[in-house]
Design goal:
By secondary structure, this protein is α/β, with parallel strands linked by helices. The protein has helices at residues 2-16, 18-30, 50-61, 76-88, 102-116, 140-168, 191-208, 228-242, 245-248, 252-257, 272-281, 302-316, 322-328, and strands at residues 41-44, 65-70, 92-96, 122-125, 171-176, 214-221, 291-294. Helix content is 52%, strand content 11%.
């Protein structure tokens, strides 16, 4: 499999450059230069607000051709982005896409590829929701909605872009997970369950795409003050209103707080996430990390990430799957 050899060689080349990179690290930290994304085509889901909206603007300003997608067009957020693109002469296109609708997933990718004149370089699977409550209170409506959005939506989009990426033998898929995809906070509903599932699906996908020269990058943000809290409150309030008393009665204090999150105490800059994604897009293929924790505060998932990587390599590194496993973990 030639792509495995190429990727392994790239990883080896990166390793030999560690000493040089270390010597330059202090200067790079004090005088970072924004990456040049000219020539890259990037599709983002969930671009109406938060990381998706910030990313759409950021990547376009760095020279990329950006396809910012969101559901329920027309809407003011779409017009704002279109006006921004016109004012700044950015190569930024707004398309309708609801990740719950398979036809829209394939349709938006097809239209993006038509405008781009070929397959996409990058998919940022950013669309996601949260619904807060004890697990017992999560009815099937809430459970199906959050899995359909956070897991199946990412799966639909990956399937839509991969034929083109495989054809060009290059590409990158970013999965916006969470630190709660590796650690668990009580009463967060099925949010962790969906992000755990996304993490597993993404890691498997990363192994399977090595022969095709396609990287999968899992981004694990901590808590940021984005509109995710506004949306979460709406979904959670709906669940609270229809909650079955026989289940809700077991958690009176928790139920009283549902739908009242305000994101207070979260002051980290949401631009951390688009900035990290842009940095990784500019990295050489085959050298990008599988998982990246993004947040200035403590990152509780880091030791878990390290141990699971060691287990995977120790378990399968010398098997027939070894080249795939080692390529993803840059060994």
């Amino acid at each position: 499999m030639p792509q495995i050899d190429r990727r392994t060689l790239l990883a080896g080349a990166a390793a030999t450059g560690v000493a040089i990179a270390g010597a330059r690290s202090a200067l790079a930290e004090t005088m970072p230069s924004p990456p040049d994304l000219s020539g890259k085509s990037i599709l983002i889901t969930g671009s109406s607000s938060g990381f998706g909206r910030l990313g759409a603007e950021h990547y376009a300003r760095l020279g990329a051709r950006v396809f910012a997608t969101m559901r329920n067009l027309p809407r003011p957020e779409a017009e704002e982005l279109r006006q921004l693109a016109a004012d700044e002469k950015l190569d930024l296109h707004v398309l309708e896409l609801d990740v719950l609708e398979e036809e829209q997933c394939y349709g938006a990718v097809a239209e993006s590829e038509r405008i781009n004149g070929g397959p996409l370089d990058v998919l940022v699977n950013n669309a996601g929701i949260g619904i807060t409550s004890p697990v017992e209170v999560q009815d099937m409506e809430a459970t199906q909605l959050i899995f359909d959005t956070n897991v199946f939506g990412c799966h639909r989009m990956a399937r839509a872009v991969l034929p083109g990426m495989r054809e060009q033998r290059s590409g990158q898929i970013f999965q916006i997970s969470s630190q709660l995809g590796r650690v668990i906070v009580p009463y967060s509903g099925h949010y962790s369950a969906t992000k755990f599932a996304l993490e597993a699906m993404s890691e498997q996908l990363a192994y399977e795409l090595v022969p095709h020269g396609i990287d999968v990058s899992i981004i694990e943000p901590g808590g940021y003050p984005t509109e995710v809290w506004v949306n979460r409150n709406a979904y959670s309030a709906d669940l609270k209103e229809r909650a079955n008393a026989i289940h809700a009665a077991g958690y009176p204090q928790v139920m009283a707080r549902i739908g009242q999150e305000d994101g207070s105490g979260r002051s980290a800059d949401p631009m951390d996430v688009p900035s990290e994604i842009a940095r990784q897009i500019a990295m050489p293929p085959g050298t990008r990390p599988l998982r990246t924790a993004v947040h200035p505060a403590p990152k509780p998932q880091l030791p878990i990430n390290e141990v699971t990587a060691q287990v995977q390599v120790g378990w399968l590194g010398e098997s027939g799957y070894g080249p795939l496993i080692k390529a993803v973990h840059n060994l």
